[in-house]
């Protein structure tokens, strides 16, 4: 009984020292989707904390008479046990012409904010403000076109 009271006492005292909001961001890692290869390409990596990150880039079937690099792609990411997010981009002549249909699901915690932006004609970013308790973390899925590749940074 004394141990239980001690643990609760320590937890309570630690909560007194937390003031305000904590901001943290993930270390950026990048995977590369080969536009010439196309199709669906999957990447599984892990962050510095050892949590698995699963990235999938999927070419949306369509007919393009001008270039193999024209078309639509679905960008999706899953941070195991925390969240899943996806969005679509339209690519024309190795530029991103549109970013649309964002979707985010919190597995644990919740999202305090989400925003899909077309940063330039070469880059689209899905910003994810993920919250667990009183702590807020900034995550993102960023797609960038670079010489025949679509890089996804998270």
Automatic annotation (TrEMBL):
Pfam families referenced in this protein's UniProt entry, alphabetically: DUF5626
Keyword presence, Lyase: no
Residue span, DUF5626 domain: 34-152
Signal peptide: 1-24
Recorded superkingdom: Bacteria
Alphabetical keyword list: Signal
InterPro entries: DUF5626
Protein name, as recorded: DUF5626 domain-containing protein
Organism: Trichococcus pasteurii
């Amino acid at each position: 009984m004394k141990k239980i009271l001690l643990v609760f006492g320590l937890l309570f005292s630690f909560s007194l020292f937390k003031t305000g909001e904590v901001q943290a961001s993930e270390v950026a890692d990048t995977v590369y989707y080969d536009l010439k290869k196309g199709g669906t390409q999957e990447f599984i990596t892990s962050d510095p904390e050892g949590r698995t990150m699963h990235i999938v880039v999927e070419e949306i079937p369509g007919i393009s008479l001008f270039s193999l690099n024209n078309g639509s792609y679905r960008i999706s990411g899953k941070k195991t046990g925390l969240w899943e997010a996806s969005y679509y981009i339209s690519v024309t002549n190795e530029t991103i012409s549109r970013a649309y249909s964002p979707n985010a699901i919190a597995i644990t915690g919740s999202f305090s904010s989400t925003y899909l932006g077309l940063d330039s004609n070469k880059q689209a970013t899905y910003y994810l403000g993920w919250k667990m308790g009183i702590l807020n973390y900034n995550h993102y899925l960023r797609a960038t076109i670079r010489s025949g590749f679509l890089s996804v940074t998270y």
